[in-house]
Amino acid sequence: MEIRRRKISFQVIFLFITFFLDGIIKWSFFDNINKGTFFVVPQLMLMALTMLCLRMDDTRLIIIYGVIFGLSYDFYYSGLIGIYTVLIPVILYGIDHYKYLFASSDFIYEISVYFIVLVVLQTFVYLLERLFQQTTTDFLDYVTFTLGPTLLFNIVMFFILYVIMARICDWLVKYRRESR
Amino acid sequence: MQKFFSNKKFIIFMIIIIVTFGLLAVSVNVRDNDETPSFVQQIGNDTYSLVGGVFAYPVNAAKNVNSQFASFYNTYTENQRLKSRIDELDKNKADLKTVQDENSKLKKELKLDATLTDYDIQTASVVTRSPNNWQNYLTINRGSTSGLKKNMPVMSGNGLIGRIVEVNKISSKVELISTNNEVSDKFAVEIQGTDAIDGVISKYDSSTGKLVMENVQSTDGIKKGQRVVTSGLGGRTPKGLYVGKVYGIKKDNYGMTNSVYITPSADLRDFTVVTVIKSKVSGD
Question: According to the model, what pLDDT value does residue B131 have?
Answer without folding.
Answer: 83
